[in-house]
Protein 1
Amino acid sequence: RTVYVNGQYLPETEATVSIFDRGFLMADGVYEVTSVLDGKLIDFDGHAIRLSRSLNELEMKNPISKADLLEVHRELVRLNEIEEGLVYLQITRGSDGDRDFAYPAPETEPTIVLFTQNKPGLADNPAARKGAKVISIEDIRWGRRDIKTVQLLYPSMGKMMAKKAGCDDAWMVQDGYVTEGTSNNAYIVKGNKIITRALGNEILHGITRAAVLRFAREAQMEIEERNFTIDEAKEADEAFTTSASAFVMPVVEIDGVALGDGTPGRVAPRLREIYLDEMR
Ligand code: PDD
């Protein structure tokens, strides 16, 4: 692969970052994942806007303009011949060559890294026809989940707990209420109503979430943005998740309880189709 690091396009084996980088030592960094379909970026604008917000919230300077960032995304997609896949972008606070809890001097340059992931079959994914099985776990992450930081250890642990249980993913639960999946936003469907947690500091403000809710409203579907418990979820007709890497993914089982007849249902597959049709 050709990757991008601090202004240069390099073979992945030649790209390097300092061992003192605060992304490495302190998880002091933010990221974005943008999908690619038919060689084109999906919702780049949404991701660029959220990136600015994450950087602002952490008082980190943005090392690249939106126009240049778009150009780097496009160039990597071109160089790596990505038809379907993902572009990963990470910006960390960089380093001034030592470890310290205090931020380095303001003139310290952030580190910016981008790479592509080739994922043929991302849109026509057999997993989406089958639906995902999830377990529920306690949400013990920090209180600013609206900032897309690279602190992903707990979500990784959740993913492993799900795998050990023979499932695909974990939904995180705080005070009895579902926050979100390890790397996606969570929804349940009751009758014609789509229910999903309202935006706040407890969840990431999904770019796919915003688009899917917009399309659902345009299709006259009813939407309720409110907390729902894991017990309410287990009694729902359907459930699903959204993310840039999996679009709309039906959920067919929660903690061993099948939803409806244990197949993807009516609403989630339709939303997936609408999303893919509208965005590509
Ligand atoms: N994850 N919630 C969490 C905790 C996430 O990590 C993500 C995305 C989402 C969905 O956001 P969006 O629709 O903007 O992708 C919600 C990315 C895909 C990842 O970590 O790979």
Note: The longest strand covers residues 29-37.
Protein 2
Amino acid sequence: THQRPTVIRGPVLTFTGNPFTHGLERTAVYEPDAIVTMANGLITDFGPAQRVLPRLPANAEIKNYSKDSLISAGFIDSHVHFPQTPMIAAHGEQLLDWLTNYTYPTELKYSDKDFARSVAQVFLRENLRNGITSACVYCTVYPQSVDALFEEAERLGMRIAAGKVLMDRNAPAALLDTPKSGYDHSKALIAKWHNRGRLSYAITPRFAPTSSHEQLEAAGALCREHPDCYLQTHVSENKSEIAWVKELFPERDGYLDVYDHYALCRPRAIFGHGIHLTDDELQVMHRTGSAIAHCPTSNFFLGSGAFNIARTLREDRLVRTGIGTDLGAGTSFSMLTTLNSAYKAAQLNGYSLSARHAYYLATRGTAHAMYLEDKIGSIAPGMEGDIVVLDMKSTPLIKYRMQFVEDFEEALFVQMTLGDDRAVQATYIGGELKYSRDPAEVRAS
Ligand code: GUN
Ligand code: ZN
């Protein structure tokens, strides 16, 4: 509890519902001069400045952001690998060779807790520098890598879901657990971290090819025993991967059916990629309340394909769809850069993603995919105080281009097409300023 509420004023964009199913008119809120008040971790007031000013607490001090700013709910990343931060931008391979040649050798280093902590610090700092206030994170097979991430996230007060990778075959021996040790270590981490403050545990079988039948069964048992934990894995990212799953699980009716068979398709299950899922598989995703994490910079970088978002956001068969950076196959921590790639992935499928639909995906849409839309992803009283403040004129080119924009939608599209970390001027976690582009400001707060 603090003595003083945090009060910020400036232009606000937020969403009250899903524009893909209910239209922008009914769901997008743009308020050119708004006040957001936060106290004790939560948003306590939000509205047009003229309406909120008279009811501000007597001791309130207002932080004014200019007309060239944009205040939004913090961005949410539904799929990211913190241990891959040191190997972002590894050249030249598609998924399976990339895992063998770059990813596994890097992840071996995380038996060292001090190394894990140092990377977790850089990872969370980069999240804040990019306005990402929540994420669903893969750690490594080593439990100490999970401790390292959660300890740092707790220090910052971030809402983070994360888990120990389960993998017991088809990778270097030192990276493998067993069905029993994977289960036991996950169980202990759940007891230690799940629902501790803003932290949640994610049961994390890496993907079908690196888990035996016995391990997938154990993952299913963990899911049954902990229905409010997340389940995260990868599915149908790459054609060679899909062919490999067919060889490893000939008895199953496709890739997603492997997970469905072990009861891993469920609410709070988040499947990375899903580029090549069939209509029948998308129907299973819809029916089971599972979600897809769309990771466009990764999909382009690994040459995996162009995810067709129009197939998952169909009104008659809605599949919860979040946005993910999927770093280190993803090539940027910037959510703006990630939305730029999401636009291009949609373009390749003949679908034109509007700027406001894209911002919905990066905030409330991903919160919905994670069953968190009652806590994060929008600005309203009672929601948690996670906020990003963008600068809409962050580079000489953007500033120049902004002279010619005719409406807010266009200004927003310019940001997601040309903007990056330089556009993030401030990030608030639980109502407290945790990052500012102006170094003097963070020190003072
Ligand atoms: N599939 C299995 N593991 C991984 C990973 O670390 N990154 C990506 N992009 N796909 C995977
Ligand atoms: Zn991934």
Note: Residues 81, 95, 99, 103, 206-207, 234, 237, 298, 326, 329 surround guanine (ligand 1) (CB under 6 Å).
